[in-house]
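Sanity check. The docking grid for iron/sulfur cluster depends on where the pocket ends up, so I'm generating a full predicted complex first rather than guessing from homology. Inputs follow.
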Amino acid sequence: MEPLSWFEIITRVLLQFMPVWISLIALFTLSIVYKRRLGLYGKLFDSTIGMIGFALVMFWVFTGIFGALDMIITHDPLSQLSGMKNKLPGTPLPRPDEGQYPYYLFGGDNLARDVFSRMVKGAWIVVQIAPLATLFAFMVGITLGLPAGYYGGRLDTLLSFFANLILAFPVILLFYLLVTPEIVETGIPSYMATVLFVFPLIFVGVLLNSRYKTQPKVRTPLLFAVLGILGWLYLSLISEAGSKVSVLPGFLDLFDIPAGILVVFVSVVFVNSPTVFRIVRGLAMDIKTRDYVAAAQTRGEGPWYIMLWEILPNARGPLIVDFCLRIGYTTILLGTLGFFGLGLSPESPDWGTTINDGRRLLQIYLHPAIVPAVALLSMVLGLNLLADGLREESLRD
Amino acid sequence: MGLFILRRVGVMILTGLCLTFLVFSLTNLYPNLEKLAKTQGNFRMSDAEVTSYLERNGYLQPMIVKYGEWLGVVPSYRHENSDGTIQGRCIQPGQAPEDAPHFCGVLQGYWGFSTVFKDEVGSIIATRLGLTGKLMLWVMLLMVPSALILGVLSGMREGSKMDRTLSTISITTTATPEYVSGVILIAVFASSTVGLKWFKGTATSAMESANFENFFLPVLTISLYGMGYIARMTRASMAEVMTAQYIRTARLKGVSFGNIVVKHALRNALIAPFTVIMLQFPWLLNGVVIVETLFNYKGFGWTLVQAASNNDIELLLGVSVVSVFVVLVTQLISDIGYVYLNPRISVS
Amino acid sequence: MTDSYDGPILEIDQLSISFFTRLREIPAVMDFSVKVMPGEAVGLVGESGCGKSTVALGVMQDLGKNGRIVDGSIKFKGRNLNEMSQEELRQIRGSEIAMIYQEPMASLNPAMKIGKQLMEVPMIHRGSSEKEAYDRALQVVTDVKLPDPKRILDSYPHQLSGGQQQRIVIAMALMAEPSLLILDEPTTALDVTVEAAVVELVKELGKKYGTSMLFISHNLGLVLETCDRICVMYSGEAVERGSIKDVFDEMQHPYTQALFRSIPLPGADKNAAPLRAIPGNFPLPHERPPGCNFGPRCDYFEAGRCDAQDIPMQPVPGNDRHATRCLKFQEIDWNAPLAKSDITEKPEPGRVVLKMDDLKKYYEVAANALFGKRGDTKVVKANETLSFEARESETLAIVGESGCGKSTFAKVLMGLETATEGQILLDNRNIESTAIEDRDTQTVADVQMVFQNPFDTLNPSMTVGRQIIRALEVFGIGNSDGERRKRMLQLLDLVKLPRAFADRMPRQLSGGQKQRVGIARAFAGNARIVVADEPVSALDVSVQAAVTDLLMEIQREQKTTLLFISHDLSIVRYLADRVMVMYLGHVVELGSTDQVFSPPYHPYTEALLSAVPIADTRVKKKHIVLEGDIPSAMNPPSGCPFQTRCRWKSQVPGGLCEKEVPPVRQLGDGHQVKCHLSDAELASMEPVIQIAAE
Ligand SMILES: Nc1ncnc2c1ncn2[C@@H]1O[C@H](COP(=O)(O)OP(=O)(O)O)[C@@H](O)[C@H]1O
Ligand code: SF4
Ligand code: SF4
Ligand SMILES: [Mg+2]
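Predicted complex below; grid placement will be based on this.
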């Protein structure tokens, strides 16, 4: 068979992405129709920049999800087909099996794997980890930043000192120190996970308790139920048979996170939290001078109610914007880790690792590195544009 | 002012101590030491042999004592071997134990010995730092002015076409981490198959003699990411200043637009980006490490990777101390500079 | 060419200005005309959002990206500003027309020395040399009566006080001796006594330089004091225009009349002659009614006529350039007495519920936040020996300017801070050192607060109903959500808000409505003592009356003790039973309203009374201008706190005022002052405000 021309490659790639296009069109149509009822999210559709950003982000989100369902990919991202090593985009398979896709659309890498399918699978890794890690970083940052900003004084000095300590630490060094097999062996990441992942629990617990404190009849069962479920999830998350932290017996352990992923996750959360802390602290210091906070104080509300129900909701604008930016930053960090071969397994299809694989032969074969590089670029760009659009819209009227 | 600096320096030293202790503990964890013993001895050492090796070299003391020794505030460990010879951290091979100093740590100028490069850590770091310094100098010269110009130009008329264009450029560059922009730049400008072949894809030769051809791509790669970021900050700050009342006052005084930007807006608008530039250092190091790896430029970042991936404990420690130090000093400069730039703080 | 010109300095003709937003066009100013003759000062009054600032910026041709002049002309000395090029405008701005606006601090470049900012003006417009410019700056700074002009020229804006900054802004405007000065609420951010001095200065300099002025204000009294002519605006239109005398005494528009009836002039009384609030709300620019904009709120509205056509401005026959935008102005009987609505009985004050005894609150602050050593602290005496009693159903007004310790006092009472010394007795229980978290629910519910800033008083991300319900929950009222919801709706009724507001977000409410919600929230736990911290000062006059009346009404019903904090003596006179005047943490005078408002006064009260502008042409005021600014509480003067600005100081022998803090003197009937003046001197004081016989 003849190799595909560039035009054919593009057409075929667009066709492969059909489920993504359909979902995107559906999402945008619905959102634009109902945009006046959707608050800030709806306003996003008034800003061209914001819409472009959102489209890019959702493109990769859908790609990740459908990819995880094995829908878009043309080949197994790990299988190596002989004769396809470093082949250019559009190269046909030498001996396609029955029902096998007859081309490597974006060529083959140095291990003769399909670059296209690896890119699609890589999206899933980013889409899974980056938002979740950012969310955790926000939980940590918020839970510590609110009291630091609200109380000020010694607590603030102490917490800020620790935050600055981590911030003064070159990220890459931290990764090299934390994400090595030796460190994993000592269990430090697991302990850190134990500490970091408890914050969402504290956060939700305090949130509900402060809200329903005046109604013990509602509060107690609610807290039991919610914290019970979250606690179980938490224990399942941190405990892993055979590792240093195994508190749950196996049959209760809902899921296990591979140690490599866990350590990557922990370090990314760890690196992001201090910045979130600083932002939240600054916002809290600003908002606590408002009269409605004074009003809450004069009616005897507890400090946590004030922090979580009076201050936090009014800080949401800047926080949402930062959340988007931070997912982008986390994506970049994940790529960095992959690029240095830290944490994730060497054959993982995530973009950082793939770029690292591809760069060795970059002078001769471009496509194995360029494809994931462009993918990562467009995803982060989308997040940045989205954040920009949100910021602009939230500032308006 | 003096007092202020003094206090900041105090906090800085405390931060430095905390961070180096942290690094020290992480690099001196048992699995690391075990690996060290095996690379220094042989890979089939038994557990007992490992222990005895570590014992002999003082690695089994409490962490804080080892840290003190490394720092040079605790007399260093000496071990009497079964054959009666005395070995210790401060005793050079062939030196009589009596002649050796009791303290030999960072404070005494002794940084340890690199197992990978087989050389004094101090001298390795000095050379490598020099190479990276050269790189950073050019990065700064390229990045800071272009970022500020970009930011001021787009911030002075918010929402204009020029703003939209320049903002899109700076957003795109901030969305492009070094390992992506490096790959793309190499592909476009240096690839031997399809590229323009304007520049070289490696910078190894730039260590000796840097020229435009072999040095521009690494410098550009580091600059791009930071440039967008600083430009965004400058733009935001500039745009905010341009809506301030006192700019309106100036306009209604009859000051021309050019003078408004230069005389009234600029100083106020640069306060925020200045801090940002200075606080960018921890992260610039990231860029340095990536770019030096990507372009095979054997500077400080490259050394860091070598030290970390080869478990070269003393070298890694040295590298960490230097980078933490650089970061803290820039933070100090940023604080002091902020006070100087912002008259509202310097008095009262 | 300009020098020989003798027509109007500024002539605005049928000006319309719109802002274009994404959703719609917002017509901010419509069919607006005004003329300013040489040397004349024209006042522009109206509620916030009626388009005053837009007119001013229209004149400056500085409407921003989305604002545009859609119709009409603005002629400056006969030349149409609308048709000028940017370069021509630039030459006029600053040299021929200068503008001063509200926030002095924000109007000065924080990173540029004052001198440089001033010198810029002649250097741009006259090509002066640096030396000439400096001399001119020095002269103008002397003209605006700033002490030590050389030092001031060499300082940064943040090193000056608010009053000094505003003087610098004025100096900057006068640098090039402009023919027209536009002042947009120039004193709103200043304290009353400082305001009085600045207004005095503006008047004087206007005369000296022969400058015409367009003076924008929401304060009728201030316009009366400064201007020759006035233009009243309502919802983007001029509704009445004329000389001060004509408009104040023979108003010809229902809105002007309603405005005057809603402000507390001397003679108003909360029981015998209550204020009349203007019903309804100010229409949003894009929701104006057909026909007369004021129609829905007008007492004389006639369906089919007032709402059938656009109303033109019509001249009032017989008066000098007096015009009104009302169809029926000739039919309305302008002198008809106000229907004496609901006269209420003055409630008798009940037993003492709150007693303060020698309350002191000192703060320790770092002397120098950034460079100071630790432990290098200073004591700020925010409240110094406060003693008073407050009874059931009584309104005690606490009067004073910024930094006098009003808010600190409120904080200590609420339990947000604990007292340094002395006691607070609530129903004979000591609460001065019980912080709010240690108070029992009943105590907390008993003492509540209404805040100043309506835009800040409600949590922007919670519905109105939810916020009231939360207060009910905290105070333990109601056993179920249903009960609390019912009670919440009743509270909305109490503050006269529609029940539908329960599900609205605060941003959908106007300032006055938010303030009502704040009041409802304060009364959720049947508060017995309510501290109202300037509850109406951020509201427009027409809304102020309604909110004040609401407070009074609830107080009558619930026998609440109201502690009304304010700097506005007019409103205090209207509603307070007793008044406490504070200065720099000290209570300088305390007595019944009549005692405080008539001689003998404390010298500070006297000055304060003279400083408050009163919008009544009959009132003759004694002119007392205080020198300088209020000292900082960090650095109080020795002896009497008021001695730096007191005009009576020389009457006290032996420099006692600078040495000793004066004792509290009882003048009988519970009237007390803190002053060294002898009884004879006190007795010789004359009333500050006199109403000329009609
Ligand atoms: N830049 C703007 N964009 C949109 N609407 C504006 C803008 N500036 C003012 N407005 C609207 O124009 C009207 C008049 O405002 P303004 O002139 O500031 O009133 P005032 O000075 O009397 O308080 C208001 O309704 C205001 O919301
Ligand atoms: S025109 Fe009619 S509605 Fe308008 S002010 Fe006159 S009487 Fe009132
Ligand atoms: S004590 Fe002296 S300075 Fe103070 S108010 Fe009385 S007369 Fe004035
Ligand atoms: Mg205004």
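Relevant for the grid: The beta strands of chain A are 91-92, 103-104.
Also worth noting: Residues 91 and 155 of chain A are 62 Å apart (CA to CA).
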